[in-house]
Amino acid sequence: MFSDSYKVTPAKQIAPFTVTVPGSKSITNRALLLAALSDGECVLENALFSSDSRALLAALKELGVPCSADEGAKRICVTGCGGVLPNPSATVTAESAGTAARFLTALLAFCDGTYTLEASEQMKKRPMAPLIEALTSAGISVTSLENEGHLPLLIRGGQKHLTGTPAFSVSIDQSTQFLSALMMTGVLLPDGLTVTARGSRTAMSYVHITERMMTDFGIPPEPSASGESDICYRIPGGTPYRHRTYPIEPDLSGACYFYAAAALLGTSVTVTGVHKDSIQGDLRFLLILEQLGCTVTDTPDGICVTGPSDRHYPGLDVTMSDSSDQTMTMAVLALFADSPTHIRGVAHIRSQECDRMAATIAEITRLGGSAKEDEDGTGLVITPAPLHGARIETYQDHRMAMAFSLAGLRTEGVVIENPACCKKTFENYFELFTGCFQQP
Questions:
Q1: How would residue 227 be classed by pLDDT, with cut points 50, 70 and 90?
Q2: What percent of the chain has pLDDT over 90?
Q3: Please, what is the angle between helix 356-366 and helix 398-405, to 10°?
Q4: Which of 43, 171, 250, 391 has its CB surrounded by the most CB atoms within 10 Å?
Q5: pLDDT for position 1
Q6: Which residues, at least 6 apart from 435, have a Cβ–Cβ distance to it below 8 Å?
Q7: pTM
Q8: What residues have CB less than 8 Å from 232, skipping those under 6 apart?
Q9: Three-state secondary structure of the chain
Q10: What does the CA dihedral 287, 290, 291, 294 come to, rounded to 10 degrees?
């Protein structure tokens, strides 16, 4: 519907409204992997259907894992393989999905077979070296077929050769998905594994999702002493996950764009099914909204955020390492604050779908705003300035498109290029955005 560009109309008075967002990508793709390694049929309810989840689902089917999907009912049925992939040889693709790329790499490495893992041109640019190095250090054959440390990969699985309880060590500075991948697939090894997270990054919200979901599927990871301050887990081996019906939470990352609009427009927004017991790290973004003067209330229908009635709120000095997907959302909110904002602890977003640090600065500048890196290069400083319309480049990054659409709610002439990039996680974002904010 909005394949080339989307022109945002500034919103005037917006009455309180309720919106329903899709299921969480992070939870859906973890649930798909855990279900595939289970001992029977799993039913995933409220599953996300997007390019990322379809990529992992298609790869599992190619590997011989029985899967069926009902997109209308938001349901996926997966019959677990009990830890043995039916197809010992296959070529699969992660497309542009980082979760699929990292999870599949570990899965294939811990199975006995020979596999090729392909990816989109965008995903080929994203980092894989820490996971590749962790696997090859243990004697598994993982070969980059184009650029070293990147996809595509030729993987010769090493399950038979990894006896005892091998010890893995992986850097998580660029992504905690490397750690989650090793944790979830460690059950494939006869005696499991231990894995130590290295690096300076301390934000672990997505790893906590992995811990919780492994426990929900019957195999809790065991914290293990590493002798240092590093985080270390012992993963039991030789036992499949327990089959079950698993409900997928609504995507809090997607919900946050509508919650941020409540602050911008001084209205109330309720997102159906989102509650304060969510396991998703972006729940912390609601604490930031409270610092902006918003009221956050957990109602029976879902969390409701009410923005300041006068649309005024302060700039903040805030660390967002555990809710970094909302960096761009916060940056856009900062453009309309009453004082400068300093976003800290987000250096790792340079190596996501695009260099989000550079992209955020470029697009804020395009709008006439003021943004720069902070002194140590790990955060952003945004100073409010008069804005004007602009065509926003999205860099094939769904979060750039969704976050900067919010700027157009209070600035005339904002046009979002390539809004279709939102199909990665939130296919109907701009349809919902239109229904909520774009008055006839």
A1: low
A2: 91
A3: 30
A4: 250
A5: 47
A6: none
A7: 0.94
A8: 194, 195, 196, 197, 223, 224, 225, 226
A9: CCCCEEECCCCCCCCCEEECCCECHHHHHHHHHHHHCECCEEEEECCCCCHHHHHHHHHHHHCCCCEEEECCCCEEEEECCCCCCCCCEEEEECCCCHHHHHHHHHHHHCCCCEEEEECCHHHHCCCCHHHHHHHHHCCCEEEECCCCCCCCEEEECCHHHCCCCCEEEEECCCCCHHHHHHHHHHHHCCCCEEEEEECCCCCCHHHHHHHHHHHHCCCCCEECCCCCCCEEEEECCCCCECCCEEECCECHHHHHHHHHHHHHHCCEEEECCCCCCCCCHHHHHHHHHHHCCCEEEECCCCEEEECCCCCCCCCCEEECHHHHHHHHHHHHHHCCCCCCEEEECCHHHHHCCCCHHHHHHHHHHHCCCEEEECCCCCCEEEECCCCCCEEECCCCCHHHHHHHHHHHHCCCCEEEECHHHHHHCCCCHHHHHHHHHCCC
A10: 150
Answer yes or no: 325 catalytic: yes
Rounded to whole angstroms, the Cα distance separating 427 from 11 reads 22
Q: How confident is the model at residue 440 (pLDDT cuts 50, 70, 90)?
A: low
Q: How many CB atoms lie within 10 A of CB 178?
A: 29
d(CA 410, CA 175): 34
| Arithmetic mean of pLDDT, 43-61 | 97
**Options 52, 251, 282, 325, the catalytic residue:** 325
Q: Two tokens at 157?
A: 């699985």
The answer to whether the beta carbons of residues 21 and 255 sit under 8 Å apart is yes
Helices 98-109 and 51-62: crossing angle in degrees, nearest 10, is 20
